[in-house]
Amino acid sequence: MTGWPAPAPGAAPLPAMIRAQARLELRTLARNGEQLLLTVIIPVLLLVVFSAEALISTGPGPRIDFIAPGILALAVISTSFTSLAIGTAFERRYGVLKRLGATPLPRAGLIAAKALTVLAVEAGQAALIIVVGLLLGWHPALSPAGIGAVLAALVLGSAAFSGLAMLMAGTMRAEATLAAANLVYLVLLGIGGVIFPLSKFPAGVRPVLRLLPSGALSDAFRSVLRYGAGLPARDLLVLTAWAVAGIALAARTFRWE
Amino acid sequence: MPAVEISGLVKNYGPVAAVAGLSLRAGRGQVTAILGPNGAGKTTTIEICEGYRRPDAGTVRVLGLDPARDARALRPRVGVMLQAGGIPTTVRPGEYLRVLARFYAHPIDPAALVDRLGLGESARTPFRRLSGGQQQRLALAAALIGRPELVFLDEPTAGLDPQARRATWELIESLRASGATVILTTHYLEEAERLADRVVIVDRGSLVAEGSPADLTGGHGQLRFRAEPGLDTAGLLAALPPGCVVKESPAGQYLIEPPGGVDPQVLATVTTWCAEQGILAQSLRIESRNLEDVFLELTGRELRS
Q1: Is B170 part of the contact surface with chain A (CB cutoff 8 Å)?
Q2: Is the CB of A7 less than 8 angstroms away from the CB of B142?
Q3: Contacts of B108 in chain A (CB under 8 A)
Q4: Which of A160, B4, B134, B178 could crosslink B26 through cysteines, CB 3.0-4.6 Å?
Q5: Structure confidence by residue, pLDDT tens digits, B190-214
Q6: What is the CATH number of the domain that holds B235?
Q7: Would the CB atoms of B103 and A17 count as touching at under 8 Å?
Q8: d(CA B75, CA B148)
Q9: pTM of the prediction?
Q10: Are B150 and B242 part of one and the same domain?
């Protein structure tokens, strides 16, 4: 490179920018050990342990049929909530979001890249969980309508949790987000209807727990994959409400730096 | 049309006025240095030009556009180097520049840029393990990869060692030669003196001086000589053109500051007076002020917190 090239400004087409950003986000995630622990190792470990031993009472039928849909929900929560919140909070803290704001990548493009990344990671998680589940003797109830319902729940659940993640990451300090996002993950794991059946909780709190996005998401996966239900309308409605509220609130409060 | 035109800019942070009625112009194809002590409002001004903050009053035009309203049109045309941060801690320089290159229509080849900035050896080292100088150079590369017509560099050489600083200066010079407009902030007066076509000195949020380095330093500024202390210089002052200042500071050091600079006539007047008084002026010399003198004169010598 002799002499400096003369100015030749111009933006690339939006899809190319989004693809490039999403690939970078994926590579960044793959390098992060704690995030992999949270999104891959813990869900698979829980799947193996809870299906092998009668640690909890899961009602009639093989335990794996109850556990596997819950672990799928946990995988969605780990990626679209915990991992997204922590990653975004530190990007904000280090000025990465601010700096990206000076590039031709529009904010909507950045959000699209993050959404693509979340969905790609979830696809990988789901593939792994399904393979391990099948090896453990899982027999999901499958129908074309059921697959559609599961995908709808996955997308709506991801939207709901992503909105909450961005709400946290855009308003709280990075360290606080790190702590809170992990805490919420653990709390939802415990009381969110993910692996402990809601029927074990006192009757008074059950309706409230079913209104949590984690309860609705697990219930949607479970009612389709375990019982072969067609469209878990109530759960999808709950997830839609969380998605709309979370995203609207995040959009109003998010601070880019 | 200038590259940047700011008039009457005001920006307050709570009760503190970061920028208090600043006006300035930066010409196209030129290097403009914004110079000022800490807290003078340099970064705030630049960040308003970059579209990060909105002014409380006044107007800002960047390439003829409003940086807040026309951000989308400006972003591909403007390169930005923040004072600190902005790069993910785990990203590798080569990878980061390849991603950024995909945001632009006609980017510089990332591999060539990595080599040009001396980052070749560390192209695969995570950002957080790069030295401070390497991190600065990567931030600079990121500002330039899209071949912008206007570049904002906020303290581009802060914390660099002399070699790295010189390399950055050469790069900014070749950038200017390519036709780009550069606006930089700096604490380093020699940096402004060497690079800038135009220097803007700001203090407490307003403009205190602007011009080329030569304008600001005023050519041959003052005459100094050494002699016995306590001379009565009233006769010298009377012989000099009106407006001249004659000082003895410290004792035995005499300083003559003519308003229009030292010319042969002033020199002759001083030596004639010395001859008449039987004074042997020692170490007689004509001094040009440097930018540092001007800067300290304008912004004061006391330390700012």
Answers
A1: no
A2: no
A3: 1, 5
A4: B4
A5: 888 899 999 999 988 989 888 888 7
A6: 3.30.70
A7: yes
A8: 9
A9: 0.85
A10: no
